[in-house]
Specification:
The complex is a heterodimer of chains A (537) and B (83). Chain A has 537 residues and is of the alpha/beta class. Helix content of chain A is 51%, strand content 14%. Chain B is α+β, with helices and mostly antiparallel strands. Chain B has 3 helices and 4 strands; from the N terminus they run αβαββαβ. Chain B has a two-stranded antiparallel ribbon with strand order 1-4. In chain B, strands 2-3 form a two-stranded antiparallel sheet. In chain B, a hairpin with a 4-residue loop joins strand 2 (44-47) and strand 3. The chains are: A alpha/beta (537), B alpha+beta (83). At the A-B interface, helix 22 of A face helix 1, helix 2 and helix 3 of B.
């Protein structure tokens, strides 16, 4: 249960230790002390994976061990280094800002007597766990020992039931606070055994949900090869689940949580060792649309890398998807075991954040930029990885504009409906109708509206709307001045907002989220004008 | 005061986004054509004769920085330019 809160706690390293102590019901700290007391001898070479703020590193260094501690979080390491300096143990501990997939690049095989990790493995996706265990087996000397204390799904029906009853509320609260969640380890003992260890449960707490596993490497064990038969196959299917996911993706395109595809290696069709290797992000909709285009047309391998559940262009542009994520996916997915070539096809649209030369340099894989649209991939592959001009260029055709207008209307419609029903019931339907119509009109006509960005196009839409309203009022409706004034303000600002918000959804306009301040200022100015109008009239 | 500074900064960011333009130094180009491979708008073209990339003009550039990141020789930059 503890790791549910870890993502949240990670943002404030100072509170981290106190929080963990609370969340593990006080069991983790004594567990760490026992690890140091029972397994660590003076002069031992120890590697800690995911050291956090360094509590365990310090305990082990006090026992006289030489500790190498790695963590992927710079903030955590800074706190750990500060604590080590305060305790006068800076000499005994070396901290490295490393991802677990980079271990073998930095340390030679057989270097460590102990590899230890607490509450880190449950944060890794399954293929990274296996990769890290294989690495640990290589880094340990033959008499070495692996120690892992982590959150597990307990065995046994009642223990499982109790575990989920306690965990579920925590998951919901954590998600609301941080929009992240973690996965406790399942059948972890078996995984450890498969990666070249003889494991045993050394301690079990909280009904089996917190365990300490100790393991010794099997002499001469080779890292397990990925077998192509074991690679899961992705197929194009329309089921109730995919339909519900479609509804979710239509209504929830703008804000997380997005449905995610589990990272790792997949096969599409019946690929051979010579079949092409494609890589994409773990946004569920991306993967499903890709599979829809490829299944039945192409036999290939698909590596799903961690783009934080975001589409590749936005993720790469926003710094959530980079060369490191691709390199990590290449290593941990085991794709090199199933193919005989080293040609990697990346989505062209992740080139704004994924450094192709870094991947070529560090992995030896050749990087090829595939077409923009998944529908072009079969033709691109058939032509021997040749892109026509058409395949390179981003377009924003009517179908896509309609889809984006729908996503925007539904998302803001729900917000407006909730606010409207509470504060302004009589006008809610009218506002929703106006937004729906304006959203679709804008979606259809925005390529022909003048302006370089959403703000300018929004002013155009606003002007067109007001002109229409005034002509209608003047010729037919003859609205009273107060009504006309209020309608003008409301419709004008709504049209402007739609233009400004649509900027981030349009791949042919620059930037995203750039307009929020302007929208805020315009919104406040409109409110002031409305107030002044009511007083004056 | 803080509000005013925030607004000025935001306005500056907006202006910057609007005036960012490709600054290309063809003398550094080694002809790997990665810019051509990744540009989603089609602003780069391969010049087979001289084995360099040609920049065909800034019209439509969305400032995605793909060509800037992929250029191994740092021949391409995005800079604020007014003209």
């Amino acid at each position: 249960m503890a790791t549910v809160f870890m993502k949240w706690l990670e943002t404030s390293p100072g509170d981290y230790d106190r929080g963990i102590q609370l969340l593990t019901w006080g069991r983790l700290q004594p567990l760490k002390e026992r690890i140091a007391a029972n397994f660590i001898q003076p002069e031992m070479q120890v590697l800690e994976i995911g050291c956090g703020t360094g509590t365990l590193s310090l305990l082990m260094a006090r026992r006289g061990a030489h500790v190498t501690a790695i963590d992927a979080s710079v903030g955590m390491l800074a706190e750990a280094e500060r604590k080590a300096a305060d305790a006068g143990l800076s000499e005994a501990i070396t901290f490295h800002n490393l991802d677990v997939t980079e271990l073998s690049d930095h340390f030679e095989p057989g270097r460590f007597d102990v590899v230890v990790s607490t509450l880190a493995f449950s944060e890794f996706p399954p293929e990274v766990r296996r990769f890290a265990l294989n690495e640990a087996a290589q880094l340990l000397n033959p008499d070495g020992r692996l120690l892992i204390a982590d959150e597990m799904v307990p065995a046994g029906f009642w223990a499982k039931l109790l575990f989920w009853l306690v965990r579920l509320p925590l998951v919901i609260v954590t998600w609301l606070l941080t929009r992240t969640t973690t996965t406790p380890l399942r059948d972890f003992l078996q995984t450890v055994a498969q990666c070249g260890f003889v494991p045993a449960v050394s301690e079990s707490h909280l009904g089996g949900s917190l365990q300490l596993i100790t393991a010794r490497p099997v002499a001469g064990a080779e890292p397990a090869q990925k077998l192509w038969q074991a690679v899961p196959r992705l197929r194009h299917r329309v089921t109730l689940k995919t339909l519900l996911l479609d509804v979710w993706s239509y209504t929830n395109r703008i804000s997380p949580p997005y449905a995610k595809q589990a990272t790792g290696l997949y096969r599409i069709g019946h690929p051979t060792p010579k079949s092409p290797v494609l890589l994409t992000g773990n946004y569920e909709l991306t993967v499903r649309r890709l599979v829809r285009q490829l299944d039945g047309n192409v036999d290939c391998w698909l590596v799903v890398a961690n783009s934080r559940g975001i589409n590749v262009w936005c993720a790469a542009g926003g710094g959530h998807f980079s060369a490191e994520d691709v390199i990590s996916a290449l290593k941990t997915s085991g794709v090199a075991d199933v193919v005989t070539h080293h040609a990697l096809i990346l989505p062209q649209l992740c080139a704004n954040g994924v450094d192709g030369w870094k991947i070529r340099r560090e992995t030896g894989w050749g990087v090829h930029w595939g077409p923009v649209r998944a529908a072009d991939i079969p033709a691109y592959l058939a032509a021997g990885r040749k892109k026509s001009l058409d395949m390179r260029h981003v377009a924003f055709p009517l179908k896509d504009r309609f889809e984006m207008a729908t996503a925007m209307n539904v998302f803001y419609g729900i917000i407006l409906a909730v606010v409207g029903v509470i504060f302004w019931r009589s006008h809610t339907l009218a506002v929703l109708a106006a937004m729906t119509v304006l959203g679709y009109v804008y979606g259809i006509f925005q390529p022909w509206l003048p302006g370089r960005d959403g703000l300018e196009k929004g002013i155009g839409l606003s002007a067109a709307t007001l002109l229409g309203l005034w002509i209608w009022s003047w010729q037919w409706a003859n609205l009273p001045p107060v009504t006309l004034f209020n309608w003008s303000l409301g419709l004008g600002v709504l049209a402007f907002f739609i233009g400004a918000e649509f900027q981030g959804m349009n791949p042919l306009l620059r930037g995203e989220q750039a307009n929020w301040t302007i929208e805020g200022v315009v919104g406040l100015a409109t409110l002031a004008l409305y107030g002044a109008g009511q007083l004056w009239m | 005061m803080a509000v005013k500074e925030f607004l000025i900064e935001e306005w500056g960011n907006l202006r910057e986004l609007r005036y960012l333009q490709i600054d290309y130094n063809p003398a550094r180009c080694i002809g790997c054509w990665q810019c051509y491979e990744v540009c989603p708008i089609g602003l780069w073209a391969p010049d087979f004769e001289h084995r360099v990339a040609k920049f065909t003009g800034p019209k439509g550039c969305v400032a995605c920085r793909a060509c800037v990141l992929q250029c191994p020789e740092e021949a391409i930059h995005l800079r604020v330019q007014k003209n």
